[in-house]
Amino acid sequence: MILHPLSENQESLSVNCGIMKVVEAFFLNDGTEQYLEVELCPHGQHLVLLLSGRRNIWKKELALSFKVSRGETNWEGEAYLPWSYFPPNVTHFNSFAIHGSHDRRVYEALYPVPQHELQQGQKPDLIRGSAMFLGNLACDKITSSLYHRLEYFKPFSFNTLLGEEWKQPESDLWLTEKPDI
């Protein structure tokens, strides 16, 4: 579940992805560099990607059950991810949020790239990526190479949440359809 503040101009949906607000979660197997990226927006848009190798999209625009409710100052979203989307043996995690507009744009990370790795005034190195659809309108989804700095993700274990005896279900998606590595 995501609970995140709304920011100015949030209520007016724009097809300019440069002002889209988004919360992103990444689930990584650091041994294979296979990972799941989930992007959620306050107006119900979402993007689910499977990647094999840094920034190498293997599957995109996977289906997702995602519900959003918006209040005056916050939005809340619930996403139900099939176990088949998770790569085998998830070992690391990171999460990001982008909100605000123009000079008040904010990039947040649960585990950010250390300041000494950034140049003064550097914002995320944005590149054009896959398409994110907003109703019938499509725009270029912007992804950040800083968000794909897998070496800064931190250890994560589902066992911490689900108990030591829990075992991650095998994924038919990852096992039967091997990504090109």
Automatic annotation (TrEMBL):
Family: Belongs to the UPF0462 family.
PANTHER family: UPF0462 PROTEIN (PTHR31475), UPF0462 PROTEIN C4ORF33 (PTHR31475:SF3)
Protein name in UniProt: UPF0462 protein C4orf33 homolog
